[in-house]
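Risk register update: the risk of archive-format incompatibility is retired. Evidence:
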Amino acid sequence: MKKTILILSLVLSLALVGCQSGTDKAKDAAEALNAVTLSAEDAVKIFTDKYAGVSVDDISFEMEKGSYVYEINGFDDANEYELEINAADGSIIKDESEKDRDLDDKAIDLALLGNANELIESAKTDAGEGFYLDSYSIDVEDSGSNTNIEIEVKNANGKDIEYEYNLETKELIKKDK
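Archived output:
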């Protein structure tokens, strides 16, 4: 009997979590965004302090388990590195390296990071009132000629809009509704 009640409680809890309204999800995301104290530049500094001499090839910012996280990937001549950093307090969540170097990796020009906030605000303004930042990622496109930022904004109804900008020229490359 206790086992049945425990299972029913678990199922009900999961069902209630799944029924969370879009407004509640937007409120949770807003609270998580308000808790963010680390900029992308701060997160990259944590990465480069830990891995001196390593080139950064990918930076992403997204919600994981109710908190925003930066994931930064980098490489040197022989290794690839991945660091996940809590955007609220700067703590390291995940730290991995491997000796499997992809020779196609291209380093991000870290001087361009200052343009990211302007483009995020531009995307939110274009999307309109009620949209908030859901995630973004920065990397060098496959041809190696442009560093791009992909930004996703959402609203309380779950509608999302994705933007892609050239981080250097700030030109809008693509907008998907």
